Amino acid sequence: MTNATVTSASAGPSTGRTLPAGTPVLDVEHLRKIYNEGKPHAKMAIDDVSFSVDKGEFVCIVGPSGAGKTTLLRCISGLAQASSGRLAFEGTPLTSVPDQLGLVFQDYGRSLYHWFTNAKNVGLPLAARGVPKAERARRVSEVLAEVGLPHVEQQYPWELSGGMQQRVAIARALSYHPDLLLMDEPFASVDAQTRFDLEDLILKVRRDLGITVVLVTHDIDEAIYLSDRIVVLSGSPSKVREVVDVPLGQDRDQVATRASDEFLELRRHLLDLVMPHGA
Amino acid sequence: MNATRRSLRWLAPAAAVVVALLLWQLATAGGLFTRDQFPTMTDTVRALGDAIGTEAYWDSVLSTLQAWFLGLVIASVLAVVIGSALAFNDFAYRSAASVIEIFKAIPAIAILPLVILVLGSTLEMKVFLIAFGVFWPLVIQVIYGVRSMDPTVLDTAKALGVGGLRRFFVVTIPSASPYLATGMRIASASALILAVVSELVGGAAGIGRNILRAQNGGVSAYPVMYAYILTAGLLGIILTGAFFLFERKVMHWHESQRNIRANEQGARK
């Protein structure tokens, strides 16, 4: 009801959600995930993962392929249940997907609903939150403009290019002003140029909205370019190998940042962590 | 150039119909069949023309359509509700699957005598028979449709906080709709067959009963009988066409419809 106006004005939509200072947006402690637990074909995907994300931070999770990155994301988003460990979103134990969490999937082609126009796709989470129609329309235009896609409201997702579709998906996740944006390999299915554009878009969005972002990727360069901190996972079953700080500052540039000495030094260090040793 | 090609697309099927009618006339008037076996095309068309002017004709068409519509609606609503409930619950689905397969295998016509005994030659009898006949294949389509939902589609709904009835109507049903559309198209055709049969055998008012009456009316009424048979066929074509247009409109977003449009555009170039 009044959620809509309150959200844009103050920090959170529901009453009494003023968090004590220093409460992390996301807190993961000794997370373990075993598929088919207790059965003969049980498989441990995540062994022991702990990290936390503070308000306003941009954290990337990287790891070799098959390291259980998607499983980890499903657990920390509340889509999957952890086998053991403690997960908290803004201080509250995680049982299902929290209202104040935005999720962007890798596969925009399946995550956007083909039967809806872009406007209806973006407005869907608002409708589910009871935002009235007029307010919904205003916010849909606003957020589509934010991701650089004015004038696509009446079109269908499948009428747009891949990069534009992923922008719509990002707009949809941002439409209800979530506190945390969680992204699963969001730029893995687009071409290189579009990928750079989308990376810069997400940095801009983060600057504009002051949103906290957690992004899962297999691309080390992307992780360095985007994040303040990188959680490096080991191979399956995953553990945290190291948490690397990325002191590259707020302003980043696809050419200059990627060519800087700090960037290259971080890249060397991360590659060393991710590449298989011995062998 | 473009206009001639477009008119050709309509002209060719129309010409085929005309040829078929001429062959009919040749076979009957030429003496291959006698009048008491098969009436001539001209007699039949004349009988149809006469019938169209009568109230009884339109009453029978409306009776058949009414039963078709009610049976289809009742079966569809039940199939969507029950099918979805079964699809969401693995245990319920496994338990019910064999029962549904058995009922689906029973030809609806086989229970016609029982239904006539219980309900008589009434609209209720027709509607029940149609609903029973099309429910089982429909419910299976619904179950398949809901169970084959893309996991990403469901995850997205959960992530966006779309739950409950809203999720059902806005996500589950559209995602299962290709299955539903196929099921409905087939159900529509069987519903018409069941309506005519229940009138023909069960004596309820409608096109089927008028076919039977004309048959009992002797050789002179044969053209009338065929006029009603033609009517049943035309009704089938109209309903199929209506479903085709409906599907094209409602399912325009679906990949299959997008491909059809793209191919049509490609063919026109």
Automatic annotation (TrEMBL), chain A:
Keyword Transcription regulation tagged: no
Matches recorded under PROSITE patterns: ABC_TRANSPORTER_1, ABC_TRANSPORTER_2
Gene Ontology MF annotations: ATP binding; ATP hydrolysis activity
Biased composition (Polar residues): 1-17
The keyword Transport belongs to this UniProt entry's keyword annotation: yes
UniProt-listed Pfam families: ABC_tran
Transmembrane portions of the chain: none
Keyword entries, A-Z: ATP-binding, Nucleotide-binding, Transport
InterPro entries given in the database record: AAA+_ATPase (IPR003593), ABC_transporter-like_ATP-bd (IPR003439), ABC_transporter-like_CS (IPR017871), ABC_transporter_ATP-bind (IPR050166), P-loop_NTPase (IPR027417)
Domain called ABC transporter: residue spans: 26-260
Region (Disordered): 1-22
Name of protein: ABC transporter ATP-binding protein
TrEMBL record, chain B:
The entry's keywords: Cell membrane, Membrane, Transmembrane, Transmembrane helix, Transport
InterPro entries, per database record: MetI-like (IPR000515), MetI-like_sf (IPR035906)
Domain ABC transmembrane type-1: 61-247
The organism's place on the tree of life at top rank: Bacteria
One cellular-component annotation, GO: plasma membrane
Subcellular location: Cell membrane
Keyword Transmembrane tagged: yes
Membrane topology: Multi-pass membrane protein
Alphabetical GO biological process terms: transmembrane transport
Ranges annotated as spanning the membrane: 67-88, 100-121, 127-146, 186-205, 225-246
Family, as annotated: Belongs to the binding-protein-dependent transport system permease family.
Protein's UniProt name: ABC transporter permease
Organism: Nakamurella leprariae
